[in-house]
Amino acid sequence: MSNLDKYQNEAVRARSKSVLVIAPPGAGKTTVILNRIKYLLEERKVKGIHVIVITFTKAAAENMKSRFKEMHKEGVIPFFGTFHGLFYKILLRNKDEIRLIESKDSYNIIRKVLSSYIEEVSDEKIKEVLNNISRKKVSSKDLEISMTYDIFDKCYEAYETFKNERGLLDFDDLQIKAVTLLKENPHILGYYRNLIKYILVDEFQDCDEVQLEFLRLINNEVFCVGDEDQSIYSFRGATPKCMINFEENFEGSEKVYLKYNYRSLKNIVEVSKDVIKHNKERYQKEIIAFNENQGKIELKKPFNESEEANIIALKIEESKRLGNKYSDTAILYRTNMESRSFIDAFIRKKIPFKLLDKEYNFFNHFICRDLIAYLRLSIDPFNKEDFNKIINKPFRYVSKSAIYGVMNSKKRENVFDILMNVEGVHPFQMRKFEELKSDIAYLNKLSLNSAIDFILSDLEYSQYIREYSSKFKQNQEDLLDIVEEFKSSAMEFKSIITFLSHIESVEENLENLNSKGNIDSVILSTMHGVKGMQFNDVHIVNIVDETIPHKNSMENLEEERRLFYVGITRAINNLYLYAPKSVRGKFKDSSIFLNNTNLDSQCNITDYGLKEGDVIRHNYFGIGEILKIEKDTISIKFVQGENKKFSLRTLIENNLIEKIICEV
């Protein structure tokens, strides 16, 4: 164990009954756990059968087991696995059969119930319900749902009924039943207390209340390694309190602090400390960068998400030319929707990328599919599927029988002509259908952005969204964010046909991601998705108010700050932070988390990503070139020859100006 630093060595050799090792990012916690096992087996002569090592994923358990086998080649290997794997073994020993519900069945149950209340059910909505079902079982904390409790209760009831009727369990049931078994059967509890003498827990900050109760029930030596500053899974029932209250929960406790961050260069460590120190629910700790070299840290304030994506694409191309791998780089964001601009940019520039959430495609959202259907119908008025999708969005009093008549017609003609000849269509509807036919054809004569605005206003799709939000109890602001993101995605395209071609290209590229194997690729992920990973170059994007921290999580500001901290501490050498001045067409202030560092003041950028020589489009005066920016005054020369001065902030906040970056 000569390769350990003094803090790691202190942790490995701790003799208290209950040991909490507080391990900041890059502190070598896996090394500590492996050496602790080695110490127990070789120096304290503990038998491997009495040692249990808990990780939070099967992959982590297999990796740790493999590494331990290389270190210790004799005797019985301890159990390496997850809490769920351990509980499964406990129940299996005391029951004839255990049958687990399959994930596809879980999804289908929730999808079926939600479909009764919500017109379009996304995978993310299903995940939200399943996470809250889990949270309800294993945590006393309030649920975090974006629907009414009545709808959630219907989902919960259907899910539990399905399982009970078939004798199925889920992972949370495994936990609850195993702990209940031990509590109600002293002889079984006694057996496991004699068997499990030493429990080592990795990522202890991610424990839920049931798992914590199990550790207290066994009441033998525990060695828990974690970091309350990286507790980011409250939606699964985890809480930093399991670390903060360690001394209350476990008798004979001792805390050991690991102090060295072996991953990140010094200034990256310092920035991360500046961010996280503002949280109250944490241990005050000293974190020291082992490598005292300075990394590159940049804060940029591009004009919008499109320029942000282009800046990052150029950096990646330059890094590749210097001989680095694409996989050395990660783009991190708060929500999956933000991946859209990077997918667009990387496809155009032929930069290979990998989405950690492989199933996500922004354009699959029902609002996007509706808008695409309107646009596609304008260039292909024979398309019955698109007609079916939009005809009653908003409601136009077209009956199911009339729609059925169109969909089953063998005629190859304009769908609205077919509709007007369907039996049962009233004469008063004819004029409305003629107008709609004309309006949809008119879309193809407009610029792409004007066509989208026409759908939203003149064709009243915005009104449909408001009605949908009210009817299905959905957050209207979240739905309108989808609309604004869709409009942003269209900004770089002139025509409907080129935009639709781009969407097809995105779909093809995303479908091909899974078949490409392990090719060298840039990583695109939410900050939640890269917990435990590290990258040479980390780009954290959209660090602006209402995104980081997220507007729906303001009541849990400390967890949002922990999430940002996790993002920063993935970086080894280079950290790039981005706070666009405009997101989805709205002016944005930099995140309050940037105010916790001195980076924002150092940048002193007040030009909102604009500079002399940039070409812009003004809503009223048209195309122009920026002549000068001085404080809040911007001078622009328009193509008509006029020179005009404006308040820059007024232009940005009222969305009167957009930078022309690249038109396709």
Kindly provide the name of the CATH class of the largest domain.
Answer: Alpha Beta
CATH topology of the largest domain: Rossmann fold
Anisotropy-based shape: globular
Mean pLDDT: 91
Poorly predicted runs are none
CATH superfamily label of the largest domain: P-loop containing nucleotide triphosphate hydrolases
Helix tally equals: 28
Supply Rg.
29 Å
The assigned structural class equals alpha/beta
Binned strand content: 5-15%
Number of strands: 21
Helix content: 40-55%
Quaternary state reads single chain
Strand order of the largest sheet: 3-2-4-5-1-6
- Biggest sheet details: 6 strands, parallel
Number of domains: 5
What CATH architecture of the largest domain would you give? 3-Layer(aba) Sandwich
Termini gap: 60 Å
Q: Could you explain how this protein is built, in words?
A:
Keywords: ATP-binding, DNA-binding, Helicase, Hydrolase, Isomerase, Nucleotide-binding. Residues 2-265 form the UvrD-like helicase ATP-binding domain. It catalyses: Couples ATP hydrolysis with the unwinding of duplex DNA by translocating in the 3'-5' direction; ATP + H2O = ADP + phosphate + H(+). GO terms for molecular function: 3'-5' DNA helicase activity; ATP binding; DNA binding; hydrolase activity. By secondary structure, the protein is α/β, with parallel strands linked by helices. The chain folds into five domains: 6-95 and 174-258, Rossmann fold, CATH 3.40.50.300; 103-168, no CATH class; 293-352 and 520-603, P-loop containing nucleotide triphosphate hydrolases (Rossmann fold); 364-499, Orthogonal Bundle (PCRA, domain 4); 615-659, no CATH class. 46% of the residues lie in helices and 14% in strands. The strands form five sheets. It has a six-stranded parallel β-sheet. Strands 9-14-13-10-12-11 form a six-stranded parallel β-sheet. Strand 2, helix 3 and strand 3 form a beta-alpha-beta unit. The radius of gyration is 29 Å and the shape is globular. It starts with 5 loop residues before the first helix and ends in a 5-residue tail after the last strand. The relative contact order is 0.10. The model has no long low-confidence stretch (mean pLDDT 91).
